[in-house]
Amino acid sequence: MTIPPRRRDHAHPIRSASRTRSVAGRRPRGGWGGPSFGWIAVVTIALGSLATIAILLGSSRSPTTGLPGSSGGSPGSSALIADTSGAPSDQPSGSAPLDSFGSTGPGASGSANGPVGTVPIVPVVDFRSTLLSVGVVDVRAILNGHQATFTSLELVSTEADPILAAIGVDRPDVPSRLILVASAAVLGKDLAAHSDRLGFIRADAVTPAVRAVAWGSRTLFGVDRVRSAGAWQLNAALPTTIGGAVAFKPAAVWTIVAGGDIMLDRGVAKAVTVQKRGVDFPFSGGTARITGRHCCSSLGWPTVVAVRTGNAGAVRNLLKSADLAVANFENPAPDNFKYHTQGTVFSANPRLIAGLKDAGIDYVSLGNNHIGDAGPVGLLQTLANLDKYGIRHSGAGKNLAAARTPAIMTVDGVKVAILSYDTIAKYYAAGSHKAGSAQLTAANVKVDVAAARKAGAQIVIVYPHWGTEYSPRPFSAEQKLAHAVIDAGADMIIGNHAHWVGAMEIYKGRPIWYALGNFVFDQVWSEPTSEGLLLQLTFRGTQLVQVRLQPTVILDGAQPNLLDPARDGRVVLGQLYDASGKMLPW
């Protein structure tokens, strides 16, 4: 981490995003393309249940935004993003990839087989929508032409009548209020182009290209999901399989929550130890709102003024509710640590790792440009101290082989491998007999992903430290390296180092997050460094089926709090969408 040069024009880097207006639950036209594509269940999750949302926000039967709320194989195997049937694709390595909406593969045409039975269906919206939930009142209003957010209902033609019957509504008198399409894939593309449409599809047809929202107070996806078929209250009489796909089972759904950079020295250590707020303080954040912006910090950047709005512990609840919680550990934690009040050399008190453990963090990446700040001995002590608290790690080790060894964890019966690499501090690189970090190259990652697959990994995630600090856009060599990682057989990339939220890309059906920004850090001298993203991923078996982003803002130089993506979180999400451009087809 370095300190950027002083900005002299005081221009807010993404101020235009913060001024964009929108109808609640609907992405605005123009500008950066819309607010959060997924925050809604993330915050609902953080607070434990959508029932809480109904109490705090009003009736869950109306479109709602705001806070709070809540396949395996060898490298080159099928894309992680499921096809529209929900079944794993059998696409061979080197063949044409699934398109942005998974429109190839079984069930893409809507063909059905198998006996008619009780099939869960879900409401879905545009990927970037901030809608929380809908109910039958909303559907009736749409069909009657009295709903402010949506102008029409969209269904797959072969499923329309059973779904309407399940909802308890009739076909509208005005045909334009009910749009019928050939498949869930077409429906997804339509929602991306027409955010004023509400769709309903089979739960086994949900992909990340759309966002599934709650029906009333219950959701099938996210950490606050219902855990049994009997708990879901929207089911239609439909064929139990589509194109041979396995029927949707809530018990087969699991989640990952991923965060950006965590640093426990300097300002964070001050809050925890000097101010005696305790090791759990950084992860005790709730919800917050931005009350103003100030110009400028000592570095010449506009800063945000934010206040807490309650729900203390929401961040911890989000992490602990996930089946797997991961982040980047941006410092060593050696036995002989030194507290730094300034500068860019870090070392954390190892006792502060207890805060990560208490927050439910299961894994941290160590392949970064600060892991060697306390020297080889400090690095080895950091590994031992993380082990003491039961936190898994990868990306650094006693030698090169250890640094390149993945952490493999079994989650809901699925083996997940995480590889971590650095591209910044080559001077901390591990050697055959030297402790250090793993370095990311196309050749290294190809070998390492193959080794992870051989060890039984069904999902391989790469956590790189790369890019340009204080820039949201990947440069050409970084993007080329990202593509090489996916070509090597990795299922997704979750990057960091920029200390700003960066672009998102879908490449060959697999997601790349170039940077999630700061999670627990003391860089509150600008808005982009104060605001980050928590990433929530929902899997069905080995297939990624939902992606949601939760904006955060750091308060007291140490504690992330959840922002409402439909309102104050729009700025950081706008930064992601602007940087992504055409790399993000949704």
Could you explain the architecture of this structure?
With 586 residues, the protein is of the alpha/beta class. It has 15 helices and 26 strands. The strands form 6 sheets. Strands 9, 12, 13, 14, 23, 24, 25 and 26 form an 8-stranded mixed beta sheet that branches. Strands 1, 3, 4, 5, 6 and 8 form a 6-stranded mixed beta sheet that branches. It is globular, with a radius of gyration of 23 Å.
CATH level 4 superfamily of the largest domain: Metallo-dependent phosphatases
Q: Structural class of the helix and strand makeup?
A: alpha/beta
The CATH class assignment of the largest domain is Alpha Beta
Shape: globular
Helix proportion of residues, in percent? 10-25%
The DSSP helix count reads: 15
* CATH fold-level assignment of the largest domain: Purple Acid Phosphatase, chain A, domain 2
Kindly report how far apart the N and C termini lie.
Answer: 32 Å
What is the CA-based Rg, rounded? 23 Å
Taking all residues together, what is the mean pLDDT? 84
Give the biggest sheet: 8 strands, mixed
User: What is the strand tally?
Assistant: 26
Please write out the topology:
Elements (H helix, E strand, L loop, with lengths): L14 H4 L20 H8 L3 H8 L55 E14 L6 E2 L1 H9 L7 E5 L3 H8 L10 E4 L2 H10 L3 E6 L7 E3 L1 E2 L19 E7 L11 E10 L3 H9 L12 E8 L8 E8 L3 H8 L2 E6 L23 H7 L3 E3 L9 H14 L3 E3 L1 E2 L2 H4 L3 E5 L2 E9 L13 E2 L4 H13 L4 E7 L10 H12 L4 E3 L9 E4 L2 E4 L4 E3 L6 H4 E10 L2 E13 L3 E4 L7 H11 L6
Parallel strand pairs: 2-7, 3-4, 3-5, 9-12, 9-23, 12-13, 13-14, 17-19, 19-20, 20-22
Antiparallel strand pairs: 1-5, 1-6, 1-8, 9-24, 10-11, 15-18, 16-17, 21-22, 24-25, 25-26
Helix pairs in contact: 2-8
